[in-house]
Input
Amino acid sequence: MPIFYSNESKEFHLQGKNVSYILNILRNSQLGHLYYGKKLRHRDSFNHLYREEYRDNSTNVFEGDQTFSLDTLKQEFPAYGTTDFREPVYQILQENGSRITNFEYQEHKIYKGKPSLEGLPATYVEDENEATTLEITLYDEVIDAELVLLYTVYEDLNVITRSAKFHNNGKEKLNLTRALSANVDFFDNDFEMVHLSGSWSRERHVKTRKLEQGIQSISSARGTSSAHQNPFIAVKRPDANEYQGEVYGFSLVYSGNFLAQVEVDHYDVTRVQMGINPFDFNWLLERGGTFQTPEAVMVYSDEGLNGMSQTYHKLYRTRLARGTWRDKPRPILTNNWEGTYFDFDEEKILSLAKDSKKLGIELFVLDDGWFGKRDDDTTSLGDWFVDTRKLPNGITGLANKIIELGLEFGLWFEPEMISKVSELYEKHPDWLIQVPNRRLSHGRNQFILDFSKKEVVDYIYEMMAKTLHDAPISYVKWDMNRYMTEIGSNQLPAERQSEVAHRYILGVYDLYERLTTEFPEILFESCASGGSRFDPGMLYYAPQAWTSDDTDAIERLKIQYGTSFVYPLSSIGAHVSAIPNHQVGRMTSLDTRGNVAYFGDFGYELDVTTMTEDEKEIVKAQVAFYKENRELIQKGTFYRMQSPFEGNVTSWMVVSDDQSEAFVGRYQVLGVPNPGHSRLLLAGLKEDYEYEVEGVEGTYYGDELMHAGIHLNPAFGDYTSQVFKLRKI
Ligand code: DGJ
Output
């Protein structure tokens, strides 16, 4: 078992493949933290890592004892108010106004496997030998409440997952005003914080900042994890780069408001915390009530950022994503959105599908505009029945015709939304997220359904299930196009209004769970104005996501590079679109657009019928190429080599598990006058394998390709790109 407990030293030692995590029971029976980092050999006691010290200025727990202060000790699940002045990981407001708690160790269990979290997405195991779980129960006598901390260590990965569960056994009402999922007190502050930030159309740009004494944090209060901040941070050693050095990743399996925070204290201790955003949050725990926090996934790497990302990719691709589509090759699709927007009819859609088929494309996706009377974005959300003005033969008629052409058929929904101009709103004007007596703000002319109400989720489930039963649909794009405002629910009492944002997300998960269970053969792709909810929570239900509404190849370099910090290529929807690009007006070649989109779930998002014959030939070749290589791309090990955030050139590659094949992309944003000689250093190959590189003369050993590189002719012009396929001979 990779989890040890010693009754004498009162220490727990969690050992992953190359990682150790050590905690202990403190003198006051709370939990302390001793170590998180590279694997240590197990010993009976790590007590030498523990220090109680006299400090002139400290406040102390026990009278007559000047050495035991939570201010100077590293803690496992800290509370505020009893000698620790940093931000706590949880806080409970009691009926008498007190916020002081004292959760003491009571018991623990160590067992094989990993439990699921009720109502929440989480990583899982397929065989109980893959992971071991530690469950520590703490108890606060005064309020008669239990706190259960859950840790799972994966045997073959450097992963530790965490969550916490609060249970009120007592008589009084408890208010959880803060309930984060994880806390780590690091010994020092020699770290940089890395996060993925941006906005609509420029999601997940990589940001790196130096830590200073004080708090630095990222968060979302938008009702979704958001395009602005992704629920991920890493702290890395300043010398860590893509290939080497220590990195600690923290990723939250949650799709709503979150907080990821780093606090550096006066002794240079770095406290990392992650969980549901405590801002505008409160959860009422009545007698018998339980609150389960989402799961935080901690990854340790001493092989730099690539090492961290590769661990996340493996875990999230194989033990977070689920279902029939988890391991299946993802179909190459045409989506009509940028090709037609709302302006289409059956004839137009069939002509797009016909030409797509000729190009070798496998799936046709009908996007927004097929239902109610939706000619623009002002109406019909919630009316999930076909608009027969546009599609006289219904979705079933259209889908059958598309299937006859030899394509699969996919359909767009935005299940969580309602337009005021809709039959649904006429019937249920009270089904909106709203607060009384206040003006209701809109986003894209639409309002949010109150998914904290079961009857709303039931109703939407019935409507969607009917469409999905009636027509041969093999793919669903689930969109969500606005952030949450005036957050309230008319079915909940005043004291529960601050629960609405979280209850909403639980409702979304419930609908996903029901639909994916009822329709296991359907491939779900999540979307939220592009990548505004690209998070691990969504990946549990939908194994791929629309990465960004920005389809410009050059913008996509940054977006896909940043996204790959956490998310596997099999989750990254990437489409070739028309030029001038609809988001930035840029002109890039069809080759470059394809060469960028190859590194994800490939598809086209344009009017294929307007392409020239030459363009169609290029597309045919791209489609054929992707089909041949998608197993490698979607399941291989991904390496980032040159960052678009650092220079004019971006490069990355993906290597098959057996290292016999690889696929490399190199992109140069601007042409360079009178350039010097350039070379591209590859990664992840087997040193003594001999490879041929398509388009390059000769054969080369892995060591040459990684250390001497491919020598390149200067690229002429802006937005150029090259891809290389490598094969072991
Ligand atoms: C936003 C999505 O990101 C787009 O791909 C498209 O589906 C539109 N919504 C449709 O309204």
User: Anything to note?
Assistant: The two ends are 42 Å apart (CA to CA). The pocket of DGJ is lined by residues 337, 367-368, 412, 479, 481, 527, 529-530, 546, 549 (CB under 6 Å). Residues 613-635 form the longest helix (23 residues). The CA atoms of residues 246 and 302 lie 4 Å apart.
